[in-house]
């Protein structure tokens, strides 16, 4: 019956029973508006996806000529060529290392500081939260120039090559993932009853025990949401990647531009490569999206 | 905390059990005063975050401000501390609208404002419409929800490169549909150079931005107590009335944060124009972040670029402060 259909549509969603809105039947005017709006939005959302998939299966002369909705001939050759035209595998590894490290680093650091802000009173708490909140609104371009100069100067004076290295890029990615993670997790930790970890403290857990045995397990949706966000933004970041990398540390964001030569753009390969770099992240995201909504509900929207 | 009366007996029961259990434990032992118990612990927990915030935000920002007062050209990149002081010269150059640099900056600022207005407005509208239309359960809801999130999940460069392909003059989908199939234009138009570029940029930005609005509003809808809808249905309110009288007012605080965040992201967006147009954006779509990037890294004039960055920062601070002031006043008025 209705409740069953519902839990089938929303497995694992918070408070899944009785999410249905009104027992009344919706009028035709609403149903038609809904159909029109949802059809338009679905088409808008998927149009580039269709182009990406269909063009990636077209031979080069087909993508170079006039656009056709239906490919004139199907070929999977672009999927083999993409690895030869540019060192895509290397870019892939670079992106994976950079985005992965930035995510892990910012989540761990954010868990500690969000716990401190959410659970303790201390001097300087306001200064800290205001700083974190305000840095979130600053444009990346503002930090790009100084970080670039700092990295160049550190390289010149100490020989530590931050500019052009993966480590340097990971550091710069913390400019956006860290403030967002801290801010979201403070909100999420605040939504977990303090009684829970106070009870753990009373029972003899240290503060870190309370954090890791009570707060972190209860905050899994929030932590996953933050990690997904951090990874996705790092995976898609272009500005820092285009300035702070060199031939060996180049990420996918910059590497994908390599399919355009002076005379020709291998559009079928561009589309095939775009699809290859998108599939893992879209799949991961769609698997974790319920966490994201749950995390946002508690952390950001309250 | 929410103090709504819930009809769901199972959640009520589990709530009571938890609160009774911990409440009892707390009463048995006297609470240790916070100050004694915590000691330096909060600072220790904050230490890594503070160090990294200093490294990636605070120090760069200070250096950025210092740089904006120096004559920092390519000759001083390896030793920017040695660049001569120039006082407010960089700022004078940036705001002198009668000279080419200042004029271009003002134009870029104007373009960014127009772009942001339309991109944020449409993204917000689509996101809210989608979330409200998916609020009620029906067949295919979960599927549509997944589809709507795809643009958000796709990496920016992969998605925007695809749009760039679609906007190609000769082999793109957009001209194929507008010119060949619908016959709306006399000849295939340029979308990535010239005056049409701003439209292309807005379309791509809206496509990329609305799923985020959808996600946030969807999360916000979960906080609206269902009893409100039930009570209003009993009173005879139809679904349109419920949307107007319950859903939209309840979403107001969410919308306020959402619009601010969308504004900041869109205004500062670099990724979309950079992948769509490359290093030099067409004049009609010359967004401020690309403009500053170009002024700094292409013409190697870091001093002026920094001054522009600081001006941008001041502008964003003023707008955000004004927005927060207005919306918090509005909320207070609604509460009273």
Automatic annotation (TrEMBL), chain A:
GO terms for biological process: transmembrane transport. Pfam families: BPD_transp_1. Keywords: Cell membrane, Membrane, Transmembrane, Transmembrane helix, Transport. It is found in: Cell membrane. The chain crosses the membrane at residues 36-53, 91-115, 127-150, 170-189, 210-232, 266-288. The keyword Transport applies. It comes from the Bacteria. SUPFAM superfamilies: MetI-like. Residues 1-22 are annotated as: Disordered. PROSITE patterns: ABC_TM1. Belongs to the binding-protein-dependent transport system permease family. This is Carbohydrate ABC transporter membrane protein 2 (CUT1 family). It comes from Streptomyces brevispora.
TrEMBL record, chain B:
Coiled coil: none annotated. PROSITE patterns: ABC_TM1 (PS50928). It comes from the Bacteria. Keywords: Cell membrane, Membrane, Transmembrane, Transmembrane helix, Transport. It is a multi-pass membrane protein. The chain crosses the membrane at residues 41-69, 109-134, 146-166, 198-221, 250-267, 306-326. Residues 109-323 form the ABC transmembrane type-1 domain. It is found in: Cell membrane. Residues 1-27 are annotated as: Disordered. Its main location: membrane. GO terms for cellular component: plasma membrane. GO terms for biological process: transmembrane transport. InterPro entries: ABC_transporter_permease (IPR051393), MetI-like (IPR000515), MetI-like_sf (IPR035906). Belongs to the binding-protein-dependent transport system permease family. This is Carbohydrate ABC transporter membrane protein 1 (CUT1 family).
């Amino acid at each position: 019956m209705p409740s069953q259909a519902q839990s089938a549509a929303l497995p694992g969603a918070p408070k899944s029973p009785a999410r249905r809105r009104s027992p009344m039947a919706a009028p035709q005017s609403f149903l038609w508006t809904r159909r029109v709006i949802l059809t338009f939005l679905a088409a808008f959302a998927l149009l580039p996806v269709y182009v990406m998939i269909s063009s990636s299966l077209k031979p080069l002369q087909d993508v170079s000529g006039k656009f056709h909705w239906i490919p004139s001939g199907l070929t999977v050759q672009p999927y083999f060529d993409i690895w030869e035209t540019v060192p895509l595998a290397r870019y892939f590894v670079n992106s994976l290392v950079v985005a992965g490290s930035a995510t892990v680093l910012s989540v761990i650091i954010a868990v500690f500081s969000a716990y401190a802000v959410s659970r303790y009173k201390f001097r300087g708490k306001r200064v800290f939260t205001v700083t974190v909140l305000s840095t979130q609104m600053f444009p990346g371009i503002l930090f790009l120039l100084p970080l670039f100069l700092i990295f160049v100067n550190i390289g010149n004076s100490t020989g530590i090559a931050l500019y052009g290295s993966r480590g340097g890029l990971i550091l710069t990615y913390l400019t956006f993932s860290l403030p967002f993670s801290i801010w979201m997790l403070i909100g999420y930790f605040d939504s977990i009853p303090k009684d829970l970890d106070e009870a753990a403290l009373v029972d003899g857990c240290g503060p870190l025990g309370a954090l890791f045995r009570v707060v972190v397990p209860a905050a899994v949706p929030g932590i996953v949401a933050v990690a997904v966000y951090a990874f996705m933004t790092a995976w898609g970041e272009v500005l820092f990647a285009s300035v702070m990398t060199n031939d060996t540390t180049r990420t996918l964001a910059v590497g994908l531009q390599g399919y355009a030569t002076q005379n020709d753009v291998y559009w079928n390969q561009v589309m095939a490569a775009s699809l290859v770099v998108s599939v893992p992240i879209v799949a991961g995201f769609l698997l974790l999206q319920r966490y994201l909504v749950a995390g946002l509900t508690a952390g950001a929207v309250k | 905390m929410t103090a709504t009366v819930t009809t769901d007996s199972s959640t009520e029961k589990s709530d009571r059990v938890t609160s009774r259990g911990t409440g009892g434990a707390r009463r048995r032992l006297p609470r240790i005063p916070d100050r004694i118990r915590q000691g330096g612990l909060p600072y220790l927990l904050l230490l890594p975050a503070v160090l990294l915030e200093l490294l990636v935000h605070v120090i760069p920002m200070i250096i950025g401000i210092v740089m904006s007062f120096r004559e920092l050209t390519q000759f001083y990149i390896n030793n920017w501390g040695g660049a001569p002081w120039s006082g407010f010269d960089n700022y004078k150059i940036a705001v002198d609208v009668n000279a080419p640099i200042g004029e271009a900056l003002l134009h870029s600022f104007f373009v960014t404002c127009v772009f942001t207005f339309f991109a944020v407005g449409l993204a917000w509208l689509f996101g809210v419409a989608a979330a409200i239309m998916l609020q009620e359960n029906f067949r295919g809801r979960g599927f549509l929800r997944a589809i709507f999130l795809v643009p958000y999940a796709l990496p920016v460069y992969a998605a925007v490169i695809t749009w760039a392909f679609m906007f190609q003059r000769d082999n793109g989908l957009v001209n194929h549909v507008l010119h060949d199939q619908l016959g709306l234009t006399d000849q295939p138009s340029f979308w990535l150079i010239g005056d049409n570029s701003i439209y292309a940029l807005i379309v791509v930005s809206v496509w990329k931005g609305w799923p985020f609005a959808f996600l946030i509003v969807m999360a916000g809808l979960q906080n609206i107590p269902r009893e409100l809808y039930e009570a209003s249905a009993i009173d005879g309110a139809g679904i349109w009335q419920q949307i107007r009288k319950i859903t939209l007012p309840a979403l107001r605080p969410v919308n306020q944060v959402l619009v601010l965040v969308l504004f900041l992201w869109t205004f500062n967006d670099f990724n979309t124009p950079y992948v769509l147009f490359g290093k030099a954006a067409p004049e009609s779509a010359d967004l401020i972040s690309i403009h500053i990037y170009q002024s700094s890294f292409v013409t190697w004039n870091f001093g002026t670029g920094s001054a522009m960055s600081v001006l941008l920062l001041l502008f964003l601070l003023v707008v955000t402060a004004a927005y927060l002031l207005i919306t918090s006043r509005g909320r207070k008025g609604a509460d009273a």
